[in-house]
Every structure is written in structure tokens, then in C-alpha cells.
Amino acid sequence: MKQSVRLGLAVSSLGASCATATAQFRDYQVCLGGDGPFVVAGASSRGNPNGVWVEFSKPVVLSDATFTLNNGVVVNDVIAGPNPSTARLSTSPLTEGTVYSVSVVGAKSTLGEPLASGTAAFIHGAGYEQRRIHLSHNMASGENVHVYLGSTAYRLGLPVACQDRPDAEAVSLFEDLVPDGVFNEYFATRLAGILNITTAANYRFACASDDTSALFLSTDDDPVHKIQIAGEPQWNNPRMYAFCDRRTCLGGVPQE
Q1: Cβ atoms < 10 Å from Cβ of 19
Q2: β-pair partners for 184
Q3: What are phi and psi of 220, to 5 degrees?
Q4: Rounded to two decimals, what is the model's pTM?
Q5: Contacts 24+ apart (CB under 8 A), 154-158
Q6: What are the pLDDT digits (tens) for 151-172?
Q7: Dist. CA 170–CA 241, nearest whole Å
Q8: Cis peptide before 164 (omega within 30 of 0)
């Protein structure tokens, strides 16, 4: 299964003293899975207490595959994942913080290759702990947050490790852990959590980011009911919520 891909190089100059970069372009061809062995590449529960994602190094045929987990976990069902190299398992309950091992036998690649290695381990809940706020990271193609909001990664909730951070993290503040700086570019962070307001009052919400961002609030604990209530139209420095730089202001108060 071959596809074409275009690769490019982007360079940001930090000053006149920096050396000039020369970009050279070549033609490549991508073959899913490549020429390496067919193996189980990884597994994760992604915080789901009754499910496991299993990733293979190549597109997989699941019809004759058998999946088992240790620690007494029962696999109730197996279906194909969102791409040809993944499988989704429905399981009996998992325990947070426990190390699980997934074993696969009988699976073959779409080219008929048997598994060279069929095991993978994961810690259930790692990065998805039962806390009120979670971060998830993805690479992004530009500075406009709406490009990320329209991506498959956002729609399916499929984070990836980037900027020296894991794919998902549990935190105690609605703030990104990736430091602001010229070397941290072309990535997106999604913050999701439960806001517990115990005192009835009028509250003003704001956000600050570099570059753009969007802040949503739901009327209940179901994110399907969320609406956008604030946003960063261009960029600002951390915690600059009340400044009018690059924002539309009315009476000195940002209106975005």
C-alpha cells in the first residue's frame, strides 16, 4: 500500500549571527509498515476502564487473531480501529496504575506476514488519571487553532507525544506545561476539565496563548453541549488575560 508525501523544511532565523540554512528537496515514497517485521507496536487504554487500543507496525487482518491480557482481564470483543494498523478491544474493568500486558496470536499483516512479536505492555490510566483537568498534545500544521479543531486527531481524541511532552497528562491548573519559546512551534494542546463553581455570581472568562486559541464551556458535564465563550485572535504572552494588545477592546476590556 503505497502513498505519496511531500516533505519540506521551515527555518526561523533568530538573528543576523545565525548561519544560513540550505533546503534540499527529494522525492520519497511511503509504504505503510515499511520493510521491517510485522509486530505489535504498542498498546494503551487511553484511560478507558473497559477498553484497550492495540497498534501494529503494518495494516493487520484480525479475522484469525486472538487477544489476551494478564491480571485476570477478559477480552469481550475485538473490532478494527480507526486506521488499518489498529484494533480496539472491549474488556472487563481495568485498574488505574496497574501494568498490563497484551498478547496477540494469529494476526497477520495484509501481505500475509505472521507476527514476529506479539506482546506490548502499558500502564492503565497513565496520563488519563482521575483528575479534573487533562492535557493532550498534537503536532499542528499552522498557527490557526481552527485547523486543529477541524482535524481527525481532535475529533477522535488521538493525541501524540511532542515538544518533549507525553501524549496526555493530568494536571491541576488550566495551563499548558509546554514552555513558551521560539523552539516550541507547530503544536497544539487541548485542555479539558471540570470547573466546580460553588458560589453563585457573575464570572468573566478569558484565555491567553501563543498563537491562537479557543475557550469552550458546556452547560453541564457533557462536552457535546459546549459553546465557545472566549478566544485568542492572534497571540499574547502567558496569563496576559486583561491586555488589549492584538485584541478588540471596549472600555479597556478585551471582547474576544
Answers
A1: 6
A2: none
A3: -150, -165
A4: 0.54
A5: 154/188, 154/190, 156/82, 157/46, 158/82
A6: 888 888 888 888 888 888 888 8
A7: 23
A8: no
